[in-house]
Amino acid sequence: MENPNTIPFNRQAAIQQLEEMTSSILLNGFRLFFWYFNKNMRVNIQGLWIDTQSVKMVKELISQNHKVVFIPLYKSYLDFFVQMFVTCSQKIKLGFTFGNYEDTPRISVIDKWLTSCGYIFSRRKLGQSLQSNYINSEILKNVILNNQVTTVYQNYERFRAGKLHRKLQADMSIRWLLETFTFL
To answer: Which residue of 24, 110, 153, 182 is surrounded by the most CB atoms within 10 Å?
Structure first.
């Protein structure tokens, strides 16, 4: 007889989720990314404002071996690219990004490029299984503990055009993670 206090475990679903979340930081991926976006961003993005005091503070924290976690709102598909451009151009240490599998366009070439730049496709839809939330939370905790810089998009879906007034909440794995690190 099954214990009613145990969480149901689906081995195949867990393996699939872990395979989807596989990512690495390859210097060639970043070089290609930086070269391409440096050529395009200078022309296409006018008036990109960078808070130099914040950049200085982040560099200082990194030099003192502190962990730095960026927690931006996920507003568009370009957020990751703009942030990587700023990170590279300001010579901030490269880190992993905990993104969203369901709300990221699925284009094979771009998927490979993103994962070679440290983008982790996590399943973060509302109402997902407890097992999926636990896997997200554990991977994110390990990424933060083993890397100096991490980015976590705090909402599980990007804002749609004209809906910036709608409040989006952090998904369960992020809430668990924030609670875990708050009480350490």
So the answer is: 153
β-strand pairing of 68-70 with 119-120 = unpaired
Write out pLDDT tens, residues 1-48. 455 556 667 888 888 888 887 888 877 777 777 777 777 766 666 667
**For 118-133, b where at least 16 C-beta lie within 10 A, e where not — what string?**
bbbbbbbeeebbebbb
With H, G, I as helix, E, B as strand and everything else as coil, classify residue 15: helix
Model confidence pLDDT, tens digit, residues 100-152: 777 777 788 888 888 888 888 887 776 777 788 778 888 888 888 899 999 88
What is the widest separation between alpha-carbon atoms in the chain? 65
Topology of domain 14-42+51-182 in CATH is Glycerol-3-phosphate (1)-acyltransferase (3.40.1130)
Q: Could you give the 3-state DSSP secondary structure of residue 181?
A: helix
Check residue 162 and give left, alpha or beta (phi > 0: left; psi -120 to 50: alpha).
left
DSSP string, 107-165: -HHHHHHHHHBTEE-----TT--HHHHHHHHHHHHHHHHH-SEEEE--SSSPPPTT-TT
Name residue, tokens 């699925």.
Answer: 106
This prediction's pTM: 0.74
Question: Pick from 35, 134, 126, 86: which is nearest to 97 by CA?
Answer: 86
Per-domain residue ranges of the chain: 14-42+51-182
